[in-house]
Amino acid sequence: MRVLLPDEMARVDRAAIEVEKIPGLELMERAGEAVAREARDMLSSVGGRRAAILCGKGNNGSDGLVAARRLAGAFTVVVYMVGVSGPDGLSPDSRANIDRLSGSAVSLKWLTQPADADELKRELPRFDLLIDALFGTGLSGAVAGLHAAAIGTINDSGRRVLSVDIPSGVSGATGAIASQAVIADRTVTFAAPKVGLVQYPGAGMVGEMEVVDIGIPPRLLDEIGESHIYLVTEEDADALVPSRAPDAYKGSCGSVLVVGGSVGLTGAPAMTSQAALRSGAGLVTLALPEGLNDIMEVKLTEVMTLPLPETGGRALSDASADRVLELCGSYDSVAVGPGAGSEPETIEALRKLVAGIDGPLVLDAEGLNAMVGHTAQLTGRSCPAVLTPHPGEMARLLETDKEAVQADRISTATRAAREWNAVVVLKGAGTVIAEPGGDVFINATGNAGMATAGMGDVLSGVIASFMAQGLEPLPAAVAGVYYHGHAGDLAAQMEGMAGLTAGDVIRHLPLALRRLSEERWL
Description:
Blueprint: E1 2-3, H1 6-18, H2 24-45, E2 50-55, H3 59-71, E3 76-82, H4 92-100, E4 107-111, H5 116-123, E5 129-133, H6 145-156, E6 160-164, E7 186-190, H7 195-198, E8 208-212, H8 218-224, E9 229-231, H9 234-240, E10 255-259, H10 267-278, E11 283-289, H11 293-299, E12 304-308, H12 318-327, E13 333-336, H13 344-356, E14 361-363, H14 366-369, E15 386-387, H15 391-398, H16 402-407, H17 409-420, E16 423-426, E17 432-434, E18 440-442, H18 455-468, H19 473-495, H20 502-512, H21 514-521
Parallel strand pairs: 2-3, 2-5, 3-4, 5-6, 6-7, 7-8, 9-18, 10-11, 10-13, 11-12, 13-14, 14-15, 15-16
Antiparallel strand pairs: 1-9, 16-17, 17-18
């Protein structure tokens, strides 16, 4: 599903009006009716009869005015024009929609003074539904004054909230919140999701998102949208996952080599290996320091092990890299880094592996940290690696801070993918997958229960598994992130978020993929 930046959506609107000759008021009418439809549903679900609509002076407010007219009669509707003293302060389209309210049952109030905030505090809790039409997606900077008071009152009211296009206070371009934002139960947006709706913290304010068609030709989204940002849907992910032939055998289902492990960090490569198996790989081998092999023989049953030369601290040595490079051509994909530790010799060994492995490669954890200051080593690879940094690792790789990474995750991941000639998976809520050509995919699966140790190790195993089964790096990353999150969602639904572990996600991977197997194999 295409995701647009606010300026792209503005150009799409303009093209619909100027090129397709769709009157702007007609687009507003369709948008307002969509808002009214969602409002009716939310009111009916609680037996409510009273709706308050808080409107600003822009097009977002105009959509709210249309919704007010469409709801009037069946429901009691009060419109609060916030920060506007009268029709003269409105755009021509907004004035036209104010005029259309004439003779309706809608009660209209103009709020401009600081004392008007007290009126909102008294009145809003009396309504069954609050409709937020204060700001659209073009908002930049902090919300202040009466608008800030209105947002605070909405959030404190205890009422259900429907936001128009985007919760007011959220940046449509990044999802950032400069001061405060409306916390919606549902958001109705038009033509396509906006970036701020699918990137946190803004995504956390959206509630249930409804994307509605208001008659804008879909081709305009592709013709005008330059950013190539997509929200991964279930259908998208399903189409990517490789099918398994009825006469499949272990050798035809892909082989994965996992390289990592050190004292105190044996769990990471073990989980990567198990996740690779549980997401469909036919054969998985864990290459690790020889002094840790015995414990892995106990921890792992289906995964084979490959003991490697080690340092005095039982970590991967320089000689271990030479051994892996001799053998890696026998595997369909290699995952490097989980639990490898930070001994200087190990870091050099990891760099040697990145330089020498010319096939499908997933780089995580210590494998990423080994690249700090050496990312130029990635650019000449014939097969782009898949890098899976969390924000802290990304900050180290880009020599910046985590706050800068999180401020605009899409731009950060896009820049890194282009500079490193790699597929970059910037982990976190709303994981961003970017590829060197500029395409960006945003994931919507996963939950807060997955904020625990080992989840990234599991993800690396899933991506490596999909690559071993024949997917190119980008689709393997997109599908891997989606089904990793989906497995986490299933685990949370069945067992709850509190205490959710990476092992729970591994255990639910086959269940996450089961619908595909039923459709394709039976």
